Amino acid sequence: MFTRKLRPPAALAAAVVTAAALALTACGGPSSSSSDAGPASGKVTLWMYPVIKDETASKKFWQDTEAAFEKANPGIDLTIELQTFDKRDAQISAALAAGSGPDVVLITPDQAATYRNVRGLLPVDEAVSKEKDSFYPNTLDAATFDGELFGVPLFQNINTTAYNTKIFKDAGLELPKNWDDLRSAAPVLAKKGIAVMDYAGSPEQTLNLSFYPLLWQAGGKVFSDDAKDVAFDSAEGESALQLLVDLKKAGGLPADAATDGPKVEGAPIATGKAAMRATTSLPELKQMRAALGADNVALGEPLTGKVQATYGNPGLLALTSINKKENRQAAYTVMKYLGSAESQKALNAAAGNLPTREDAAALGEDADSKAMAAALKTANPGESSPVARQVMGALAPNIQAALRGDITPKEALAKAATEARGILQRAAR
Amino acid sequence: MSVHTQTRSAARAATPPPPAPRKKVRNREALAGILFVLPTLVIFGLFKFLPIFGAGAMSLTEYSLNGDFEFLGADNYVRLAADPNFWQSLRVTFLYVVIFVPFIIAVSLAGAVLLDKLVRYTGTFRALLFIPYLSSFVMAGIIWTWIFSTDGPLNAALGGLGLGPVPFTSGPQLLVLLSLAVVSVWKGFGYSMLIFLAGLKAQPAEVHEAARIDGAGAWKSFWFVTLPLLKPVVFFVLVIETIVGFQVFDTIYVMTGGGPARASHSLIYFLFDEGFKFFDFGYASAVGVVLFVIVLVLSLVQQRFFEGKDSK
Fold first, then answer.
1. What region does A106 belong to: left with phi over 0, alpha with psi -120 to 50, or beta?
2. Which residue of A has its CA nearest to B255?
């Protein structure tokens, strides 16, 4: 009954993961125990998130993965629990504080930095010790703090510009490639009641997907090189925020941009009220095509300000502090299995992400895959700091205030920087 | 006769007098009462009092996710007093309570009075008005976000009248808080309405009849008879809704995320951010303790106020 509901891509994904699982079992590759002392055993709970956007396909994929893993590792009882991205930090922190959370959890590099700072994570070097050279160095770097690895890179999530090509064609405009193009297209489209760019200014949205890419495009940084100070209150930061404010004034951002969330469904980009989105992942691209028609949506390169930049982060499998010593090897085995080339190929085929290993095949040869692969070259994995999330909490409301016209971009960044420096000082104590 | 008397006296001296039957019954009733209340007391103690003391203890520490903690004394409270974001959240919360509490009391009392006047289909209307209370906050928030959005039906209707668009959830602070209060009132008035309705049904009919005979109209009868008799219920609802107002979170989380520019960043939202987004559990606990004290003091003040009015 479950199988009957599967759509072709989901069925293909299931077939791929099953084939991968069988291959792994036959080869005795990543599925065998990681310990020389004999097969690992124990119970491991893994919290996974909607990396595969289709809920049914996601459920099927992770059920099959769990079954295949347990078949290959009979001594380990793996439970994969599917969570939602909503209130992710709250769920994880509450569970860990109560000692009842997952052994392994999927997080981003800046989350890893924050969790490590509050002693919520354990190092995982042992899980990849023999295969470290197979991983792209940038993905390992993003998860390395003080020389220790705090997450096994599972996939790379890349974002780039997506256009509603029909809007630009109808208006006789070229697709904007840089900030100047944006500024000139904004008033033209505003006359038709369309915002040139969608923007999610809600404080619940990570700035990695909203303001930070613009900051990086301006040549700026969130933190100083030694991460002991913030650096967004610079001329570059000001020009990035000024761009948003200028676009808002020219009708180039949706009216509710200061409070809009990141969802595609029902957002201005999906209803034809906005012409492009600067940070779009492949699963979001699918949602846009479903809403606007496949022929009306195309991917492009990341926007260019002073430089070209976008956000692309590895998804990390991190080991939490509640993992017990007797289950440690079992947890490493799970991480090693899921981080293997074969598992990555299966996951990326199902989710549309990029691999973190050189020996795992990249995406296909189609235009979307090529655009994502190209965007990877200018992707910033997010600036790691133990207080990355707190600094976002200080910056986001002030960006909102600037977008509303309450304060100037310079005042907004100065106010946020004062608050952020207080956060950094407290963290350094 | 005297022998009998002597024997009885001796017996009385040898054994203590048996307890009077009434006292025995009273003790048994008291024991039964305690046994009936005990499960609630245990649950209340475990899930209400213990967390309060736990939060109080945690507020004196820096608590890590792995369970390690460092004793800080009153540092978290000192930091709180100097934190402008805390004072901003406190201001937002008070402002919201001032808008929300009279609003929800007026709406639920009006609903209860209307239901009390109905002679037919009372159950149907009661159920219909109670439905929003049973809906989820998240669903309500999502639907109301759409209603309030620039492209939503409310702005479309205003546009038809040549007004707007009104930035209900992204405009000035008062408008944002009012919009949030509308959603909370819509979602929550059913509960207080039923309490008011029970209070109205319990009022003696002869008092209202006497007022009618004395020539009191509907408004005078409501103002000088119904409302004074309803005072204990009003006090109860006032306390409950004040607490609900101070604890506002879900609506804000779904609709504004505490924004724009912290315009709706309530105290509970501040606590949520500090505890569950930034993992500063000790500091978040200090916020919780302060909120507990504020609500406790306000409840006591309200009680005094109502008792004072009653005694006059």
1. beta
2. A259
Residue A115 identity (one-letter amino acid): Y
Range in A388-392, A403-407, B116-120, B240-244 the model is least confident about: B116-120
CB-based burial, A333-368: b 16+ in 10 Å, e otherwise: bbbbbbbbbbbbbbbbbbbbbbbbbeebebbeeeeb
Beta bridge partners of A158: A312
C-alpha dihedral sign at A410, A413, A419, A422: negative
d(CA B99, CA A109) in angstroms, rounded, equals 42
Task: Please state, in angstroms and rounded to a whole number, the distance separating the CA atoms of residues A344 and A157.
Answer: 13
Residue A335 confidence (pLDDT) above 90:
yes
Q: Residues of B with CB below 8 A from A406's CB? A: 261
Q: Do the chains contact at B276 and A87, CB–CB below 8 Å?
A: yes
Q: Do A406 and B66 touch (CB under 8 A)?
A: no
Instruction: Find, in chain A, the residue whose alpha carbon is nearest to that of B274.
Output: A390
Q: Is the CB of residue A157 less than 8 Å from the CB of residue A315?
A: yes
Q: Which two tokens stand for residue A172?
A: 């006789």
A314: phi > 0 → left, psi -120 to 50 → alpha, else beta; which?
Answer: beta
Residue numbers in A near B167 (CB within 8 A)? 255-256
Predicted model pTM: 0.79
Question: How high is the ipTM of this complex?
Answer: 0.75
Percent of chain A scoring above 90 in pLDDT: 55
- Whether B78 contacts chain A with CB within 8 A: no
The Cα A273–Cα A222 span in angstroms is: 31
CA distances (Å), origin B37, targets A399, B23, B40, B45:
53, 21, 5, 12
Q: Tell me if B65 and A114 make a contact (CB, 8 A cut-off).
A: no
